[in-house]
Amino acid sequence: MEAETASPTVRLFNALLVTMLAILTGLFCVRLRLIRPDEGDLKGMGFFIGSIAFPLLIFNTVATANIGAIDFGVIAACSLGKIAVMSLTWLLAFVAYLPHRSVGQRILTAAVFAFFAVASDDFAIGFPVIDALYGDEVDMSIYITGNALVGSFLFVPITIIAFAIGGALRGNNGEASGCRAIGRTIIYDLVTNPVLVMTCVGLILKIIFAASSTGSLSAKKLPSPFSNFIDLFTAPFGMSALFLTGTSLRSPRVAVWAVGLVLMKVVVCAYLSYAFGTLLLGTSGSTKLFRDFTFFYGAIPTGSPPIVFAAQFDPDSAELIATSVLFGLMLAGPIMFVTANSLGLHGDAAEATKILQQVQASVDASSIFCGGAFFLCLLLLRWAWHFKCPAKLLLAVYGMVLLVYAVVSLMLNPLFYPQSCELFKRMELRTPLVLTFSWLQNTASIMLLLLQSMLVCGPAVSKERPVLGVSIAGACFVFALLPSLLATPNTINEICGVSAVRNVSLSLTFAWSCLQLLIASVLAINGLCKARQRANRAEWRSERSESSEEARESDSSYDGSADLWQQLVPQGTILAITILNILKCLTQVINAGQVFFYANKNQGSFAAMLLLESVLEHGQPWVLLTALFFDQNFTSSFLKVLSGMCPRLCKASQVSKNPLWCLIRHSYLENADIDGRVSETDHGEL
């Protein structure tokens, strides 16, 4: 009784909680050696889920779906978002992920990654979450069914075709001579795929019942005893699929591709689905519920089917896919939870604005802390930061700009200084505080684009050109004045509760966001092409060896015994902040377009989209500080300087009495000699 009267947010939280517990149960069983997947303990469960339970669940869903009540604009919006994400993910994976391998193997991996980016866990997560959110008020489960049907008839066949082509090319060492054999393989795989077969059988059954004199088939249940048979075989699917996902996580670890795949599925797919939903459904009040659903559905994380495909066609990527599934749940949970709070079923624009103000204030406060920690690192390192390198100098100035930007943003927040927003409403961009806010925001954005250009076009070895670095940093401040004086800064209208109107300033904001996304995308494509060319030249050399060799070849002054932080450009740090910058630019383009073209208000799923943009925009110091301390070259140099400032800590007697210091040194100086120099094996670590 208490569960029935619980709010949609509470029901959603409970559904996400039990989902995570089911996955963690599988993970713990493997880590405790209760189950040994390598010895075949889960082969039977994998066969049952992939070949029996899941196809029967598809059959039951298709056969009992009330397709006539579906607004196909919603299905089209979600499908178009998935098509865009699937195409982009496939291209990125084919070009950039381990490009030294054969063409067939790259096609297989790209197909697995692309399928991951669109394979929403409709049955294990989608139906429980949607039922928990909407309950009996609105029947939105039919749209889960519609999207599952499109996935079965469109995305699964495309993936199977890619697997057939990749497998044939891999078997022929990349030679596409056997076109007939590839065609026969594709047809055989499509005809024998249990998901496609059961989908077709379900549609045929629905057509037969619809044409019969008894009318259409019930939208809820098949006739007995068929319904009892289906219920018996599909009842274990939810728990078994999630448990199998957990057992696939051998050693979950943070990896660039795992994080990238999760962002493509949970964030990019959700934003693009909402954008297509706005185009196809319009902005009338009657379609608001469906537009909100497109974003919510796009944020549903991926389930276990990509793990099954990876294990069958590309075993080397299975662990990466399983890790991505776990990360997807960790990211999608908060996004869906925030979206549930923002939906129009409970809450209005004023309440959503207040929540946005609170979230942005919290992010700014934590960013000030992270910016202060970054400034402290600069003070401790001093010249060891190597300010003569233009990239490191620009990175240092970027961090300081973010610190001041967070302080100014907090001063604009009406929770602390209501008069700032009142003055902004009267004078718009003419207030000194707003102009400063806009100037710092655009300066940081331009610096990120220049850092990305250095990553793509610059050398791997640090150059001692302090004048160039100062000139570049100064140019960023100067060029940022133009958009600051003409365009409205991002997040300012929403945080001050200003209803944006279509004017010149807002149009320039949209154009400036589009220009940033275009430049960042062009640089990213250029970087991928150069990486591909380097891989072709290097053939089978590993990425670390290649980076180390390039560093030695590009500059004769490279000294393997010197501090790597001073010798090399921090490419790993720059890569992390630029990837998040591309994602931030995409969210700003879509949100600015929604406001400019459709005058969307801060409510529903759009409120959650604004919250995510605010976190990405104002949480940049988090990313910068985290990326720095994930860079082993930086941490080694930092601890070396810290050891020199506190020599007592370096003594063995003191180290043995300080377990925290011992842990730090063991983690980051494992490969260093007594002077804190990194061994030769780590020269390629960027």
How would you describe what is shown here?
- The chain is mainly α.
- It has three domains: 8-342, Na+/H+ antiporter like fold (Up-down Bundle); 349-554 and 562-630, Rhodopsin 7-helix transmembrane proteins (Rhopdopsin 7-helix transmembrane proteins), CATH 1.20.1070.10; 631-686, no CATH class.
- It contains 30 helices and no strands.
- The radius of gyration is 27 Å and the shape is globular.
Which labels suit this protein?
3 domains, Na+/H+ antiporter like fold, 73% helix, 686 residues
Summary of the model, kept short:
With 686 residues, the chain is mainly α. 73% of the residues lie in helices and 0% in strands.
Q: Which helices and strands appear, and what pairs or packs with what?
A:
Elements (H helix, E strand, L loop, with lengths): L7 H24 L11 H22 L7 H25 L6 H14 L5 H13 L6 H31 L7 H14 L1 H18 L14 H9 L2 H11 L8 H26 L6 H11 L6 H9 L4 H25 L6 H33 L8 H23 L5 H10 L4 H26 L8 H14 L1 H6 L5 H4 L8 H35 L4 H12 L9 H4 L3 H28 L6 H14 L1 H11 L1 H14 L6 H6 L1 H10 L18
Helix pairs in contact: 1-5, 1-10, 1-14, 2-8, 2-9, 2-10, 3-4, 3-6, 3-11, 3-12, 4-6, 4-13, 5-6, 6-7, 11-12, 11-14, 11-25, 13-14, 14-26, 15-16, 15-26, 15-27, 16-18, 16-19, 18-19, 18-22, 18-25, 22-25, 25-26, 25-27
